[in-house]
Amino acid sequence: MAGRWGPGGADCAVAITFDHLGEAAEIQLGSVPPDAPTGQHHSVTRELPALLTMLAAHAYSATFFVEAWNFRHYPHAVRAIAEAGHEVGWHGWLHEPWHRSTAEEIEESLRLSLDAFAALGIRPRGARPPAGLLGPHSIDLLAEHGFDYVSLAGTAFGTTVGSTARLPLLPYPWHAVDGAYYVPGFTRLRVPPGDEPVGPDGLLDGYAAIVDDTAAAGGCVGLIFHVPWQDRPERVEAIGALVDRLAADERVWLARADEIADWVRDRPADFPAAPHADRAPAW
Fold first, then answer.
1. How far is Cα 24 from Cα 119, in angstroms, rounded to an integer?
2. CATH classification of 12-31+40-265 is 3.20.20.370, yes or no?
3. What is the rounded CA–CA span in Å between residue 265 and residue 23?
4. Where's the NodB homology domain (predicted)?
């Protein structure tokens, strides 16, 4: 159903979102020891300030899904995101892969995370489980902890349903992740798959095709950038160009993730339940 998104009746909704901060994911992956000194990660000292400056220049309020570990180690960076008018969502405690974690481990991650959010006076509305997958864990767990929407890997949109809970779903396909264009080993996620990185121009072409498909389907999509990978000026400039392109596209309602979630929640008859992805990408 086209023409149902946002106040202007756009064909589709698009949110530009960011993942990762600090050493959290590197600690989870084992590339940084848990007891290594922290506090000067390049994603906080270089990439994040450049991104915040760029987003302000292009007048776009984005959503940052942040590992809550950063609230203890980089509180100033998290405050800077929020004070600049961006949404701060949850991306695990230490980027633990939900689809490979026990229910007890996830409960502990949520407890630590929400305590850290509360200490900074921030209440996360959106959840993007690390790797974008729920695994065997119910959507009810997120609803019980007060989340208002979930961002998951997949292409279906609408709401995702647990045994008792129903949350708006903001989906993203794996080729809407910047690593598919920038990072060796992730490039097989592109459509069509590739063996080598293609750089910002290739990313913009890929994201344009995703937006075309989303508009034709009358859907919504999240486009994902990882803060640590915006380590070159041309990559930051490409995000600014993308913001301008989407803002000028009459087919697109360019909004923040929580704004899209509110739109879906307020119109349950228009947005039926959708399936979510249940497997990780083959990288």
1. 18
2. yes
3. 34
4. 45-150
The pairing of strands 158-161 and 126-127 is unpaired
Q: How many CB atoms lie within 10 A of CB 45?
A: 12
> How would you write the pLDDT of the chain (283 residues) with one tens digit per residue?
446 899 999 999 999 999 999 999 898 888 887 788 888 999 999 999 999 999 999 999 999 999 999 999 999 999 999 999 999 999 999 998 877 788 888 889 999 999 999 999 999 999 998 877 766 667 888 889 999 999 988 877 777 766 667 889 899 999 999 999 999 989 999 999 999 999 999 999 999 999 999 999 999 999 999 999 999 999 999 999 999 999 999 999 999 999 999 999 998 888 888 765 544 443 3
**Residue 40 backbone zone (phi > 0: left; psi -120 to 50: alpha; other: beta):** alpha
Does residue 55 contact residue 230 with C-beta atoms inside 8 Å?
no
CA distance 176 to 221: 9
Taking the complete model, does pTM exceed 0.90, yes or no?
Answer: yes
- Pairing state of beta strands 149-153 and 158-161? unpaired
Provide the β-strand partners of residue 96.
none
Question: Cβ of 49: how many Cβ atoms within 10 Å?
Answer: 12
